[in-house]
Design a protein that fits this description.
The complex is a heterodimer of chains A (357) and B (411).
Chain A lengths: L1 H5 L9 E4 L11 E4 L2 H4 L8 H10 L1 H8 L4 E7 L3 H16 L3 E8 L6 H17 L2 E6 H7 L6 H23 L9 H7 L7 E9 L3 H10 L13 E10 L5 H15 E12 L6 E9 L29 H6 L9 E2 L2 E2 L4 H4 L9
Parallel strand pairs in A: 1-2, 3-4, 4-5, 7-8
Antiparallel strand pairs in A: 6-9, 7-9, 10-11
Helix pairs in contact in A: 3-5, 5-6, 10-11
Chain B lengths: L8 E7 L3 E10 L2 E11 L3 E2 L2 E2 L2 H19 L5 E6 L5 E10 L9 H12 L7 E13 L2 E3 L9 E12 H12 L4 E7 H9 L2 H6 L1 E6 L4 E7 L2 E8 L3 H12 L3 H11 L12 E3 L10 E3 H30 L16 E4 L8 H9 L3 E3 L15 H13 L10 H9 L2
Parallel strand pairs in B: 1-6, 6-11, 12-17, 17-18
Antiparallel strand pairs in B: 1-2, 2-3, 4-5, 7-10, 8-9, 8-10, 12-13, 13-14, 15-16
Helix pairs in contact in B: 4-10, 6-7, 6-8, 8-9
Classes of the chains: A alpha/beta (357), B alpha+beta (411).
Chain lengths: 357, 411
């Protein structure tokens, strides 16, 4: 995925590919780093998260060099397998330690991929959520809802690339010099200052007449923001609007107002706008939001559990599992034909629901 | 061994994921007259599995107290319902070669065949809960009473239901705790069928689907006998859950919307039909698209029925290996009867018809008391009916089995 994305990104973004499997690191434009040469001998982890974790730890020095002096790290990872689930939290942790703001996009496996991968992915989201400043979870099941049932497989993957790619492109261009309303990465940092707080992300494109409103509406209906359990309203928003030379300021502010009406952003809304001639009459809207997690009475430490750093505040972090399973969160999974049937049928069948009034 | 005489008082308890119901009836001339009824919210059961024994025990004690107080009679034994995936069923068979001297089947041959079927041990760690008679075959032809008929090979079949021993002891112990014996277990789906399917339905062939809150139990009758039964760990709570996830609303709101606006069929006209949560359009009222509600519910409902259809086929294939078994109106002329709380979902029968291709109707228990004539009470009413019709048991149990059972129940 990152390989495909790197072609569309502006030059200001440095791309690095990390993997344990040597074959998936093609020599080319992007910087590559093979993890766990000693542990896996370039063969991949075979789905073992522990192996992925050890692989990333062994490459600590290389990773630190990679992140040195980088203000914003966007980590794109697929959870469920060994490398993504095991290494991603370590990589995110190291990047955060070097002082970068870390925003992660993690894709969850399809429900048809079975119990083990889903568990591994659920565990990894919790760990990853604690390490990065922002975590956006992309459900593969939900992405499938966006494409028609008879679309070829490549189209589903293209759709996935589109959402995440748009997000990264938007963020990267926002900080590049030359924006109409500019922001610096520190603004993003203040937005995402609390690790483990739920992150909202939405992206939409509009074209032709009323493009800004179309883009705003598309962002409001973005499946990434409609994942079950995803935050509905947030305290702080970051809105990025990009359009061709014809974009008017009224249009841009209308779009922002529409996005605010849907997602909140009462405490603060950071605005960023930019003219990109390449977009023509298209307008793109990206939204990133975070709300402070509700402070909660510290959980009683479990017997035998290791004492955590007392300075670390304890937050309830809603796991992916409980988000998807709703009232059944915390109960054992029930499998029929290899699917966890406690997950709503419409999610597993990837059916797009009618819009809310 | 003489058949057990029918007691004059019968108490039944139906423990479900959502509610526990109990009925006490006096038997006059083979018919039950209701003395008292009680139902309470079940605590400690999730998805048909007991998670908190203490809470569940308390709940069972409460309903027993209720029916005792309500009738002024003391209960000394009860029939318990058995549902969910904990009760696993399979077909067991036994056969004898009919002695050649006159080639006629004697009562002893039948008893020997039954004994040979029941000698088959259940898998280790599991206890046999009940046997249900299936067609007797004489030289591969089904016969109702083979005694006196000529043939070479006599085969008897049973649908045997087993349960993990610990689980069964727990259930028995729960009732024993208040000095009440468990007289017998009755399969919940069988009970639901007894309350709603006529003898003619069972004679021809009928599939009864009992969708409760936590599990969906089904049973298939063919030529008057139970052919097979099964359970899917999905029920009405899943409908509520899907709605609560999709609309981000509480369980209570989802339950309420499910009952008022839900449907097992999604129609294009539902989309953009706006409904209000409270209807007063006041503070805190919310509006939803009815299409979302019916879409979410119909997908889950129809998927669950599809799971049942697959489960029926899987079990039929296990019973008749090598045969291409088809579920159609020829095999099941009476079609599907829906019972349990989720049968009340609007258009449930239509959805079942769509998924299975069989005719379907919602089954209402046939009972003197009008307040119990609802599909959700098919289970508890049926327990009473099944207790009456199944005792004395149609099959005499071989020696030792009853003693074995008593031994277990005395724990």
């Amino acid at each position: 995925m990152v390989t495909r994305l790197s072609a569309q990104l502006p030059a200001e973004v440095a791309v690095a590919l990390l993997d344990t499997d040597a074959r998936s690191l093609p020599a080319g434009t992007a910087q590559t780093l093979q993890l766990g040469r000693a542990q896996t001998r370039g063969m991949g982890t075979g789905g073992e998260a522990a192996l992925g974790l050890a692989s990333a730890e062994s490459e600590e020095a290389g990773l630190r060099r990679l992140f040195a002096g980088v203000p914003l790290v966007v980590l794109v990872t697929g959870l469920g397998g060994g490398t993504g689930s095991g290494a991603a939290p370590v990589v995110a942790g190291l990047a955060a330690e070097t002082g970068a703001t870390v925003l992660s996009f993690a894709t969850m496996p399809f429900s048809h991929e079975g119990e083990r991968r889903m568990r591994q992915a659920n565990d990894a989201t919790v760990k990853l959520g604690q390490k990065c400043h922002g975590l956006v979870v992309v459900h593969n099941d939900l992405l499938l809802q966006q494409v028609s049932p008879d679309a070829p497989l490549s189209e589903s993957f293209a759709a996935a690339d589109n959402w995440v790619g748009g997000a990264i492109r938007g963020l990267a261009s926002a900080f590049a010099p030359g924006a109409l309303i500019a922001v610096d990465p520190a603004a993003l940092r203040s937005l995402l200052s609390t690790p483990g707080s739920p992150t909202l992300f939405a992206y939409g494109v509009g074209e032709g007449e009323g493009a800004a409103m179309k883009a705003a509406r598309a962002a409001c209906d973005c499946p990434l923001a409609h994942a079950p359990g995803a935050v509905a309203k947030v305290a702080s928003l970051f809105v990025y609007v990009a359009g061709g030379p014809a974009m008017t300021s009224t249009e841009a502010f209308e779009a922002v107002a529409a996005v605010r009406a849907r997602f909140g952003g009462e405490t603060s809304t950071i605005l960023c706008a930019r003219i990109e001639p390449a977009l023509g009459d298209r307008i793109e809207v990206s939204v990133l939001g975070a709300s402070l997690p509700a402070p909660k009475a510290p959980a009683k430490p479990k017997k035998g559990a290791k004492a955590e750093d007392p300075a670390q505040p304890i937050f309830e972090f809603a796991t992916e599992e409980s988000m998807r399973r709703g009232l059944f969160g915390g109960t054992p999974m029930t499998f029929i034909d290899g699917q966890d049937v406690d997950v709503p049928a419409y999610i597993r069948k990837a059916v797009r629901l009618p819009p809310s009034p | 061994m003489t058949p057990k005489p029918l007691p004059s008082l019968i108490a039944v308890i139906d423990i479900g994921t959502h509610k526990t119901a109990s009925l006490l009836g006096q038997i006059i001339d083979g018919k039950a007259r209701m003395l008292s009824f009680s139902e309470r919210r079940t605590d400690g059961v999730v998805k048909g599995t007991v998670t908190d024994l203490e809470k569940l025990t308390q709940c069972v004690h409460e309903v027993v107290n209720d029916i005792e107080r309500g009738s002024g009679r003391a209960v000394d034994h009860v029939y318990l319902s058995l549902s969910g995936p904990a009760a696993e069923g399979e077909r067991v068979k036994g056969f004898v070669a009919v002695p050649a001297h006159d080639g006629k089947v004697t009562a002893k041959d039948v008893a020997d065949a039954i004994a040979s079927a029941k000698r088959l041990e259940p898998p280790s760690g599991r206890a046999t809960i009940l046997y249900m008679r299936q067609p007797t075959m004489l030289d591969n032809r089904p016969v109702s009473n083979p005694v006196g008929m000529a043939g070479k090979r006599l085969e008897v079949n049973f649908w045997r239901v087993t349960m993990e021993e610990g689980n069964m002891r727990m259930r028995v112990g729960m009732v024993n705790g208040m000095s009440i014996r468990v007289r017998d277990f009755i399969l919940a789906s069988h009970a639901a069928a007894c309350a709603t399917a006529s003898d003619a339905d069972k004679q021809g062939g009928v599939l009864v689907i009992d969708m409760g809150a936590g599990t969906t139990d089904w049973i298939l009758y063919y030529k008057e006998h139970i052919l097979c039964a099964g359970s899917i760990p999905v029920g009405g709570e899943h409908l509520t859950n899907d709605l609560s996830v999709a609309l981000r609303i509480s369980r209570e709101t989802a339950e309420d919307l499910k009952l008022r606006f839900g449907s097992a069929m999604h129609r294009d006209t539902d989309v953009n039909q706006t409904i209000w949560k409270d209807g007063d359009k006041g503070v805190g009222d919310q509006q939803f698209n009815r299409g979302t509600i019916t879409q979410v519910l119909s997908l889950r409902y129809q998927e669950t029925i599809e799971f049942v259809r697959k489960d029926v086929l899987r079990r039929l294939e296990a019973i008749f290996p090598g045969h291409a078994v088809k579920l159609d109106q020829n095999m099941i002329p009476s079609g599907v009867i829906l019972t349990g709380g989720s049968a009340s979902l609007a258009d449930a029968a239509e959805a079942v018809q769509l998924v299975t291709g069989l005719s379907a109707r919602v089954g209402v228990p046939n009972f003197e008391n009008e307040s119990l004539r609802k599909p959700e009470y098919a289970g508890v009413v049926g327990l009473m009916t099944a207790a009456i019709t199944d005792a004395p048991p149609p099959v005499r149990r071989p020696r030792g089995f009853l003693a074995q059972l008593k031994e277990l129940f005395r724990l």
